[in-house]
């Protein structure tokens, strides 16, 4: 049977092998492992790409969220608004600084519903974490306005949306920080865990630089607080610097794949495809996440036919008992959780594979 993989890291390696091998050789032959030139180069290039003054390489997207909350001084007694539909790390970062997450439902684009934010604001609310899911940004102009009206900090969890923008303004340039993940299957994926924050605030950049290295100022040796060990490795940074050069072309390819899916599937009434009509919002399709009325029946059919799909998440994170979160009722999150299905979306897919996915989806609905 034909197989279409969700991602194929070995294939990407073969596509840019010479550059990755050269980066590896450079790092290994110099013995530059911790906080060296490759990290600085990647940070400069990332900041330039996003359009912020600073980028600070960290060990993961989770660390980026964690450092951002700490830099904003958020802690015990504070409430932070987070979407009910996101990867759990968005919420865990809040809990782990001893603040209280207050969940807000999402809209049909999978992102936090701006119409529902104000009802969740209390005198203890300090921040909103806006998550840009799948490559498509939350409504930042509206969220920034709400935050301004209530004097709230905004942190952008942009872990799934590097390169996305609204009216040409990039993800990660609206809030106090943009938080990035370079987990292998992200749009800019490394070869292990990795992350970063971007910011225009020099104090936040200095704070994160110190705290990622156990609170130490590397130049003076002074400890500026109890910190963490969450530095982006120099070798990982060297690989990411290579892959960042290929990101703009990769985004173009993703958009072309999305367009093929749109043309092949948009006549099927039981599918809700991720093509939205908000003017100025640019979707970079880290994921091609659709909703299928038939839920598991649909996703299982694709899997049975050799197509790897993701169904994140059939069980919303706030329904996991051990997380101890308040479920205030989130109808859109509940509805999408039953129907969500991400089709293969990556730069290594061939046109033939995309065609096979389209034909298989159509055959599920009895269409040619
Ligand atoms: C929306 C979102 N937030 C946070 C994270 C956490 O990133 P990481 O896995 O690098 O810690 C991820 C990715 O895994 C994510 O998709």
Short description:
The protein is an alpha/beta fold and 368 residues long. Helix content is 38%, strand content 15%. A seven-stranded mixed β-sheet has the order 1-9-8-5-4-2-3, sandwiched between helices. It has a three-stranded antiparallel β-sheet with strand order 7-6-11, with no helix packed on it. The chain has a three-stranded antiparallel β-sheet with strand order 10-12-13.
Describe this structure in words.
This protein has a 7-stranded mixed sheet, with helices on both faces. Strands 7-6-11 form a 3-stranded antiparallel sheet, with no helix packed on it. It has helices at residues 9-15, 17-30, 37-50, 61-71, 89-96, 140-149, 202-211, 234-265, 295-304, 331-339, 351-364, and strands at 54-58, 79-83, 100-104, 125-131, 153-157, 165-166, 169-170, 177-181, 195-199, 271-272, 281-282, 288-292, 340-343. The chain is globular and about 70 Å long. The protein is built from 11 helices and 13 strands. With 368 residues, the protein is of the alpha/beta class. Pyridoxal-5'-phosphate (PLP) binds at residues 60-62, 86-87, 89-90, 131, 157, 159-160, 181, 183, 193, 195.
